[in-house]
TrEMBL record:
The lineage of its organism: Eukaryota, Metazoa, Ecdysozoa, Nematoda, Chromadorea. Residues 223-349 form the DUF38 domain. It comes from Caenorhabditis nigoni. PANTHER family: DUF38 DOMAIN-CONTAINING PROTEIN-RELATED (PTHR23015:SF4), UNCHARACTERIZED C.ELEGANS PROTEIN (PTHR23015). GO terms for biological process: innate immune response. This is F-box domain-containing protein. InterPro entries: DUF38/FTH_CAE_spp, FB224, Mos1_HTH.
Length: 391
């Protein structure tokens, strides 16, 4: 087909005549469309329109003035049922979804509407390096004299072994050297990770032993995590990062602070929606908690905490308080024994022990709340450990 005059390119009937000519040559449709574009111009007609008229002419339908609005609407990729689209994407890795998003705007919007789920992400920031694990794949950015070194796995194909840990099929790593600081280089990889739309992490762990201003942007946006552990040297940053976890979706969290936590610190934790809507909370390291503070945990299913030293008789208040908690299932409490021995607690609970013992179990039933609890009390070092379990 020779080049056609410019004024004919806007002539609808003439363009259809060109398509009919391609049909008459009995060429494959894609070859025909390529030849059509080379002849009349690449902007003359979109492929779906070319395909429509090509198929009609192949079927002997020669009406150039056919009203397409009377016929069935052409199906596109986005016309697939939602369940089928979800089935296609559910087994994709987050990295495969990244390429899927690049197809077109509709696919991007659909992909972004689905959660991108990571099983486990761990981040540890130290004075001279930053380490992170994503579904078992290990990365490390380490400070060097003139920049940093960055180590990453050669492959991202991690498999779950029988014991529940992740093992990379190729244990060799790629190590590269860069002139940037180790934190800046780390953020190039981590910041986009936490900006993934609808990000969900089943188990998230974040430990910072050296807080620097460069780390302030490490977790830039709020995201979904079912379980979280946050360990920091800066309490304000700890609360900020805890608040970045979507309340309600967060089922349990652990906070570890490097120095003693006062009443004013704990009050800020209690006031967060994350604490109010959680099912389980663990507070490690020393916190200024007294027996009366236990009531703040009455909505939880399970909790772990450290109490200030208490008198022997106060074990009864602990028992009577916890037995009133509506959702309670289990907890662990520890406090300094200050020279007292476990037999003194047994006497208060009217448990009579024979011989030297380091632990005993006390069963208590609260008829008012129809609840029976087992208190396993153990003397270990300078502490009493109390593990309470709903029977």
């Amino acid at each position: 087909m020779e080049k056609i005059p410019e004024f004919l390119k806007n002539n609808d009937h003439y363009l259809k005549s060109c398509i009919l000519y391609e049909v008459a040559l009995k060429k494959p449709i894609f070859d025909s469309y390529r030849n059509f574009c080379d002849t009349v111009g690449h902007n003359a007609m979109e492929y779906p329109d070319f395909e429509f008229w090509y198929c009609r002419f192949c079927q002997g339908e020669m009406d150039f003035d056919y009203d397409r609005s009377r016929g069935p609407v052409s199906k596109t990729l986005m016309d697939m049922p939602i369940k089928l689209m979800q089935k296609i994407t559910e087994d994709m890795t987050p990295f495969e979804k990244r390429y899927l998003r690049s197809i077109n705007h509709s696919i991007k919007d659909f992909t972004d509407s689905l959660p991108t789920v990571f099983e486990k992400i761990e981040i540890s920031a130290y004075e001279n390096k930053l380490e992170w694990k994503v579904n078992g794949n290990e990365y490390e950015c380490k400070k060097e004299e003139n920049g940093c070194t960055f180590s990453r796995p050669k492959c991202l194909n991690a498999e779950k072994c029988e014991k529940g840990c992740y093992r990379c099929k190729d244990e060799n790593k790629i190590t590269e050297t860069f002139e940037e600081s180790y934190i800046k280089k780390s953020l190039e990889y981590l910041t986009p990770l936490f900006k993934i739309p609808n990000l969900q992490i089943n188990d998230f762990r974040f430990c910072v032993t050296d807080q620097t201003p460069e780390l302030d942007d490490l977790l830039p946006v709020a995201f979904y995590a079912k379980s979280a552990c946050i360990q920091m040297t800066n309490f304000d940053k700890m609360v900020q990062h805890l608040s970045n976890l979507k309340a309600g979706f967060l089922e349990e969290f652990t906070i570890c602070f490097h120095s003693s936590i006062g009443k004013e610190h704990l009050t800020r934790i209690y006031e967060t929606e994350q604490f109010k809507q959680a099912q389980g909370v663990k507070i490690y390291h020393f916190a200024e908690l007294n027996v009366e503070d236990l009531t703040n945990f009455n909505h939880l299913k399970h909790f772990t905490l450290h109490l200030n030293p208490i008198e022997g008789e106060e074990i009864l208040r602990i028992r009577d308080t916890i037995s009133t908690f509506k959702n309670f299932e289990e907890c662990s409490i520890m406090y300094q024994r200050n020279g007292r021995r476990i037999r003194s607690l047994a006497e208060v609970l009217e448990e009579y022990l024979e011989g030297p013992v380091e632990e005993f179990t006390h069963r208590y039933k609260n008829p008012a709340f129809n609840k029976t609890l087992d208190f396993k009390i153990k003397e270990w070092g300078h502490y009493f450990f109390i593990d309470v379990l709903k029977v």
